[in-house]
Amino acid sequence: MNNPVPKPQRFHSVTGLRPEKADYYIGLHAAPWPGVIRAIERAKIRNYSIAVKEIEGRLCLFSYFEYVGEDFEGDMKQMADDPETQRWWRETDPCQIPLPDAAARGTIWADASEVFHTP
Amino acid sequence: MNNPVPKPQRFHSVTGLRPEKADYYIGLHAAPWPGVIRAIERAKIRNYSIAVKEIEGRLCLFSYFEYVGEDFEGDMKQMADDPETQRWWRETDPCQIPLPDAAARGTIWADASEVFHTP
Q1: Identity of the residue in B14, B64, B118 whose CB atom sits nearest the CB atom of A55
Q2: Is-contact B29 B88, C-beta < 8 A?
Q3: Domain boundaries, position B105
Q4: How many angstroms from the chain centroid is the CA of residue A58?
Q5: Which of B13, B102, B15 is nearest to A51 (CA)?
Q6: Which chain B residue is nearest to residue A49, measuring alpha carbons?
Q7: Backbone φ/ψ region at B16: left (φ over 0), alpha (ψ -120 to 50), beta
Q8: Could you tell me if B58 lies within 8 Å of chain A, comparing CB atoms?
Q9: Is residue A14 part of a domain?
Q10: Structural domain count of chain B
Q11: Given B10, B29, B119, which is nearest A115 (Cβ)?
């Protein structure tokens, strides 16, 4: 018996945003580079959004996206290998302050655990 | 000329979760009451999810949903007037620690600002 993963898979994650880089980060995301959007689509990510909120004096970024493919690791690797995405991340990474668990893994975004979803 | 709001409208929000109530809150949301789900549907909310993540020793809840109706305030008021939803909130409200801006408005969830969305 196959036990297929329900689709889409939803991913929530969190990172910090440097106050002095907030305007730059938000400006980049208000007009994202077309090549970056194409790489997201090729990675089978849909309905991807990022929100910002100050929590106790700390700016936090929250991301939500849906993954509709069959090979998450492979698709994420393909996106990470995309030169335009790498250029984008060279702009965005210095704007962000990873949470300790993400920093320990060498990543920017820390996974959040979904506790509820409407059927 | 009408200038219709693009649909769906996406809403992101944040609140705190009391550590001593986290298991209870998560358990409630793992098996939400059918009447609460029906009220969410009647309020024209779709694809509603909540995630949890510890940030600097503080548990935070992040919600994402899409609103597909024409009268957000009216639909939210109808949901708030639903007796089953009111019973649910009597269980969930004491689990949560509103951020200061939400507390000042007498609400539980504080709005986060969307900075990015894939087309």
Answers
A1: B14
A2: no
A3: 31-112
A4: 19
A5: B13
A6: B117
A7: beta
A8: yes
A9: no
A10: 1
A11: B29
Q: What is the C-alpha to C-alpha distance for residues A11 and A110, in angstroms, rounded to an integer?
A: 11
Q: Is B21 helix (H, G, I), strand (E, B) or coil?
A: helix
pTM for the full predicted model:
0.93
Q: Is residue B1 part of a domain?
A: no
Q: Could you report the per-residue pLDDT of B50-100, keeping only the tens digit for each?
A: 999 999 899 999 999 999 999 999 999 999 999 999 999 999 999 999 999
Q: What is the pLDDT of residues A42-99, one digit of tens each?
A: 999 999 999 999 998 999 999 999 999 999 999 999 999 999 999 999 999 999 999 9
Nearest to B39 by CA among B74, B71, B81, B72: B81
Residue A1, judged by CB atoms within 10 A of its CB (0-12, 13-18, 19+), counts as: exposed
ipTM of the complex: 0.93
Tell me, yes or no, whether B13 lies in a domain: no
CB pairs under 8 A between A and B: 120
Q: Read out DSSP for B58-117?
A: EEEEEEEEEE-SS-HHHHHHHHHH-HHHHHHHHHHGGGEE--HHHHHHT-SPEEEEEEEE
Q: How far is CA B1 from the centre of its chain?
A: 33
Residues in B touching A64 (Cβ below 8 Å): 12, 49, 64
Q: What is the DSSP letter of B118?
A: -
B41: in domain: yes
CB contact under 8 A, A50 and B115: yes
- Cα gap A41→A75, rounded to integer Å: 10
Which residue in B14, B47, B119 is closest to A118 by CB distance? B47
Say how far apart CA A79 and CA A44 lie, in whole Å.
Answer: 10
The token pair that represents A12 in the structure block: 């929530």
